[in-house]
Write a structure and sequence with these properties.
The protein is globular. It is mainly α. Helices cover 85% and strands 0% of the residues.
Amino acid sequence: MLIKKYKEMSIELKATLWFTFCLAVQKGVAVITTPVFTRLMSTQQYGQYSIFNSWLQIFSIITTLKLTGAVFNKGMSKYKNDRDAYTSTMQTVTLLITIIITGIYLIFRKYINELTGLPTIIMLAMFLELMVDPAVNFWTLRKRYEYQYKVVVIRTVSYVVLNAIIGIIVVAMSEEKGYARILSSVVVSFCFGLMLFVANLANGKKILKKEYAVFAITFNIPLLLHYFSQYVLDQFDRIMIQKMDSVSAAGKYSVAYSAGALLMIIIQGINSSLVPWQYKKLEEKKFKSLDDVLYQTYLIILGTVMLFSAFAPEVMKVLAGPKYYQAVYVVPPVALGMLFLHMYTSVANIEFYYSLNKFTMYISMVGAALNVVLNYIFIKMFGYVAAAYTTLVCYIIFAFSHYIYVSVNVKKIEKIDKMMDSKRIVILSAISVLYCIGISLVYDNTIARIVIIAAISVIIFIKRETVLGTFKTMKKR
């Protein structure tokens, strides 16, 4: 029966299914291997690996100009008859920029090493990965665009599994386990990237086409501040913790943050069903129905956040062990941040529908700047746990800024009295923040947590029909 239904699916639906599977494999392997790495590595060594990844993301924005983002899909449409040359051109541009940045690094390596806290060999390994990694992104994006999901699945599963296995073996055999984990990951990434780098060039035949390069660069440069701002909000707290506290603290924070962010799997699943349904309701101008279902998804995610946060001590014990347990207090604000991230995403879908997305860059910049300032003040006062709360505050501001912006503008466009019911959103947000603070205070009281878990479970059971009804509604196109 299932096989027959699968065969009857459209190519688009099959591709969506398998790309979701790829994401699940990546997240799943990361979850499975985290307890292994956290037990093999000290908090400082895990911190080195975490800091490396944070700096890798910073330099990737510089060396790629984020040409691996939306502009690539734009080019796939704009130059649909010459996609091979467009792909190889994007690859050449990112390679040339990376070579230039590597040269600048070599001249100023002493100062850059002091800034990053990473030695020369690790920095050179980073630039080596950056030279070929865009090839993987371009290749994957193109296959996704053309719904060629089979090769993407094979490549993704092979890379994720090999990276994990080789990483565990190398870390177990090494004394400098943090750097061993970094170098093992770079070697695997480089091997996979080099193969696709050569394949992209061979298919493209033309290494560089000026028209394509100029189009992509001029399209993306105005968006770089937005990309940097997003990065600051998502990742920069680890670097600030390293500088203001210690590498060990950054390692603890990173593990706890990863635990809280596991809820992204659920959120991405909801969003994938929500987007087409939202667009349909906006076309039909059924704003009340749209508002009600959005609110229901907020309640569903809040219930999941509450339950997950109540189990945070057990999650941390399984994922990380006693060395990292102190960071358990990072989990509730990070998990709750996922709720407000979903709020922003659901509202942003409305922005995109009405082409109101110019506001995104400005609020991203304000949110990023505020995050840095708050981190600077409160990490000094309260330690690395404060970074999770400052990020939560910024996500709340981020979500409500977009919420207000959309409400005001859509009311003008559609000539309606009210786009969304803001009162209940404010109440829900206040309850969620109070719960986030309260649950942290009872982590040492097992009985209190059991009562809370039981109460939440009973409410979810009673409301199960409402939950199922929400998902059924979103499936109706």
